[in-house]
Each structure stands twice: as structure tokens, then as C-alpha cells.
Amino acid sequence: MVAVEGERAVETTDGKNGQGGKSAIDMLHGPIWNRVLMFALPVAATGILEQLFNATGVAIVGNFSGGEDTQAVAAVGANSFIVMLVINFFIGVSLGANVVIANAIGRGSMDGVRKAVHTAIVMAVAGGVAALVIGELGATAILGMLNVPADVYPLALLYLRIYLIGLPVILLYNFEAAIFRSVGDTATPLKVLAMAGVLNVALGLTFTAGLNMSVAGVATATVLSNAFGSLVLLRLLVRTDAPIHVDLRELRVDMMAMRSILRIGLPAGIQGAVFAFANVIIQGAINSLGTTVIAASSAAFNIEVFAYQVLNSFAQACSTFTGQNYGARQVGRCRRVLAICYLEDVVATAAAITLVLLFGRSLLMIFVHDPEAVDIGYIRLTMVFIGYIFSMAYEMASGYLRGFGISLVPALLTVLGVCGTRIGWVMLVFPSHRSFESIMLVYPISLAVTAALVLGSLIVYLPSRRMPAR
Length: 470
What we know:
Blueprint: E1 2-5, E2 8-11, H1 33-63, H2 69-107, H3 110-145, H4 153-165, H5 167-182, H6 187-210, H7 215-239, H8 255-287, H9 291-327, H10 331-358, H11 360-367, H12 371-403, H13 408-428, H14 436-440, H15 442-461, H16 463-466
Antiparallel strand pairs: 1-2
Helix pairs in contact: 1-2, 1-6, 1-7, 1-9, 2-3, 2-4, 2-5, 2-8, 2-9, 3-4, 3-5, 3-8, 4-7, 5-7, 6-7, 8-13, 9-10, 9-11, 9-12, 10-12, 11-12, 12-15, 13-15
């Protein structure tokens, strides 16, 4: 189907069997506020649902691991930031694919879309295999650096080794989801994730409660359910018409498309990985405080990210909407996208944080039963949510800049603001103030520093003025 914008034809995405066309969002015409919501809310729901299934896995090992329930929860928690480091990096690279495809759609370059889509699929699988090999070779060394307690270490290593096996399909799913989102279809990844998540819970219960596999059970369930989800999305892409149709015979790397994806995605990936790396450093400090603190922090983390998914979904919307409109030479509309995304993000994130804080202690008790662990976990929720005020500011600015193809600057500033502040805090402040509260204080401080830096770069760049449409 072709929509006419002035004298330039822009192909939209009606697809076979209703795939693509019914779920895609026209980002180039009409009101913005409702379409941002149509994009962001399914993305938030996808992230929340994914975390809910992950949290269910933690709850399963916490309730069906016999006498080692606390150690099992701590084992999964000790790995959470390692997993995030790898996944965040490749999700960042997949955002590069999202922006490149969205920009090509805005320009009306269907050949550019086709090349970027097929290149992204190959990059996902190849990157997953490379990460799998490197991760397996360095698993013992990585956990050794994190001060994992002796009673937790064997379970943590077992969980990590199994999880790493699933990296190729986990990354494939994320790249496929980015491809769908580039045309505004955020509903399809949500539906597929829901199916994969139900499978994950069912398998987790079977392996852990039925077969007494403990952490090995939930890790195996995660791998198998992600394999299912990635294959379903691939099948849908094969059955979808242009512009995001995948022809398996054309799966190859186009060097120009790969360079464009990496130019935007690599800095974004580094930005995401830096967060996880800095959190790995913090996790090491948390691990030094004992098993109860590890379990409490893990439980809180599984809850707090619900609110973060809401926050981040509007930043993704800002990046994708900006990418398409910049490609279509509608720079003024890009500015409106930024303002609307900011406003809607404030309202939605505030609502999410309020709900979590109101029911925080009850939610924590799903994962940990020790009253001391619940109190410690609630401290983390409170401190991290204070930091989300600043996180929202720089995530949105970063997404906006990324939509214009400016990815390196916010990534470097994030490295400086997040990584520098958190590593410095753990090295200089924590040794003389060895408490959980001391560690948690670094979250709002580091996020405030980063927000100031990235917002400053947005003011300096003014991309909508400096970079008029090409």
C-alpha cells in the first residue's frame, strides 16, 4: 500500500494474513500523542511481561529448591547484572537497526529497508554465538571477580553456563522485535512474548518443582522459551510483506547497512553495557555484604524494573518516531515528538512508581520471606526510584539524539556519568561506609550527573536546527 506525502511516495506495511499492516503505526502523519501511546504502551507491556516471567522464575527457585531456596535466589541474583551487560549491549545494537530501518522507511527507500532487515538478522545470530563462546570461556573468572559467596557460587556458575547457551536465540528475538517496532508494530512482539512467557513458566515449574532441577531448571526453561519466541517471530517476518519481509535466501550482511547499524547501535550498545558493567561493580560490593543482602537486592531488582520498562518505552518511541520523521524531512515534527514523549513519560512513570511503592513490601515477600530481607529490599526500591527522575531525563534525550543518528555523544557521556561515578563511589566511598544504604545512594547521584551531561549535549547540539533534513 502506498500513501502519498506531497510528491513523494511512502510505502507502508500491509502484510500477508493481516501481519504488519494492521499493527503498524503511521508515524509521519496525523496526531502524535495517541500514536506515541500506541507504540510505547505495548513496548512497556512487553518489558514488564518479560520481567514478570523472569521474576516468576526467581519465585519458582525461591519456593521449590528445598533447603537451598535462599542460595538459589541469590545465585540467580548474582548473575542478573552479568546477563544484563550482555543483553543490554546487543539490545543497544538492535536499536541501531531500529533507527536505520525507520529512517529508510521515512526516506521511502525500500531497498535500504530490505538490506538492513536481513543484515540485522545475521548480526543477531553471529553476535549471539560469539557472546556464547566468550561467556563460556570466561564464566568462572567473571563470577570469581564478583565476590559470590562460597555457598552460592556452584549454583550461580551452573545457572550462568546454561543461560549463555541461549544467547543466540535471545539476541535474535530482540533484533526481530526491533525490526517490527521500526514500522510501529509493537503488538506482535508483545503477543509472541506472552506465548513464550507462558511456556517459560510451565517449563520452569516442570523442571524445578517436578524434576528438582533448582536453578538449572529455570535457566533451561528460559533458553527453550526464547528459542520458541525467536522462531515464531522469524516465521512472521518470513510471511510479512514489504518493507520488513524476510527472505531466508537473502540472509547475508550488507556492509553499508551493517556500518549504519553499528554507527548508531554500537554506541547505544556500549551505553547499555556501561550501565550493566557499573552495576556489576555495585553487585560485587553488594555480594560482600552476605547472602541475605544479595537475595533482598535481587528481589527488589525484579520489581523495580517494572517501572523502568515504562520509562524506557517512551524513550524507544521517541527514537523511532524521530528516526522516521527525520528521514522524511519533517524536522519540526521531531521536536513535537520529543515534547510529547517527555510529557507522557512523566505521567506514566510516576503512576508506575506510585503503584510499586504502595505494594512494595507485599511484592518483595513473593521472593523473600525473611523480614530483614524485605526491609533491605524496600530500601533499594526507594533509592532507585529517586534516581529514575534523572534517568527519565537523559534516556529521552539520548533517544531523541539517536533518532537523528547522533549516538556516540550520549554514549560517551553515559560512560562518564554512570560508570565513572559508580566505580569511583565503590572504590572511594564504600570502603569507609560499608552499608547497603551507602551503596544505594550512588544510584540517584550517578543518574543526576548523567542527566546533566546528556541534557547539556542536547542543548549544545540542537539537532533539529543544526541538522535540517537531508
